[in-house]
Specification:
The complex is a heterodimer of chains A (114) and B (112). Chain A is mainly beta. Chain A is built from no helices and eleven strands. In chain A, the strands form two sheets. In chain A, strands 2, 4, 5, 9, 10 and 11 form a six-stranded mixed sheet that branches. Chain B is built from no helices and eleven strands. In chain B, the strands form two sheets. In chain B, strands 2, 4, 5, 6, 9, 10 and 11 form a seven-stranded mixed sheet that branches. In chain B, strands 1-3-8-7 form a four-stranded antiparallel sheet, with no helix packed on it. In chain B, strand 7 and strand 8 form a beta hairpin. The chains are: A mainly beta (114), B mainly beta (112). The interface between A and B is medium-sized, with 27 and 28 residues.
């Protein structure tokens, strides 16, 4: 059974701080890793994709991947109240030429307080 | 605004009704997905279509029937649903290969 583990939170951080969200996965063969943000009552929104070891930065977001340790993380710098949402880690759990099946973690709820 | 369009946004139906959910994308993606999401849970995969062929059915009850009329459209036909089927139904699409999925806004379904 392929699994993706996340701390459900809530993770509470003050405005302007760095929020650090972590995710571990069980399948060593996974090749693609994604972070989605989901506001309450809305659909998941892709915020980061990462495929190789190391860091990938996009604005205030940095994704980090360590395949040897089987973890992927998301850092949010200068956190804003508008970042308050559930963050879903998704790892590919089956890949053919035609589709990319994703395994989702349970999500970490982030609360940024003024 | 998302590039995956789902209709309707809300649907209330009785247990004996037949209805359909629709999903459309114009990004040239060749894979399309249906998910079910309950409150405070992650999306749960139901079906995957790749190049208009059903590739994955995650043991979904037959009261849910998917259809992919062409590469841009995905339908989910509903019949004789149960109250526990009330949920947010999400459609997603992706390019072929190891690419991310892009979600529509979802249809919030309530079964009376």
């Amino acid at each position: 059974q392929k699994e993706v583990e996340q701390n459900s939170g809530p993770l509470s951080v003050p405005e302007g701080a760095i929020a650090s969200l972590n995710c571990t996965y069980s399948d060593r063969g996974s090749q693609s890793f994604f972070w989605y943000r989901q506001y309450s009552g809305k659909s998941p929104e892709l915020i980061m994709s990462i495929y190789s070891n190391g860091d990938k930065e996009d604005g205030r977001f940095t994704a980090q991947l360590n395949k040897a340790s089987q973890y992927v993380s998301l850092l949010i710098r200068d956190s804003q109240p508008s970042d308050s949402a559930t963050y879903l880690c998704a790892v590919n759990g089956g890949y053919s030429g035609g589709y990319n099946k994703l395994i989702f973690g349970a999500g970490t709820r982030l609360a940024v307080h003024p | 605004d998302t590039e995956v369009t789902q209709t309707p946004k809300h649907l209330v139906m009785g247990m004996t009704n037949k209805k359909s959910l629709k999903c459309e994308q114009h990004m040239g993606h060749r894979a399309m997905y249906w998910y079910k999401q309950k409150a405070k849970k992650p999306p749960e995969l139901m079906f995957v279509y790749s190049y208009e062929k059903l590739s994955i059915n995650e043991s979904v009850p037959s009261r849910f029937s998917p259809e992919c009329p062409n590469s841009s459209l995905l339908n989910l036909h509903l019949h004789a649903l149960q109250p526990e089927d009330s949920a947010l139904y999400l459609c997603a699409s992706s390019q072929a290969g190891n690419q991310p999925q892009h979600f529509g806004d979802g249809t919030r379904l309530s079964i009376l």
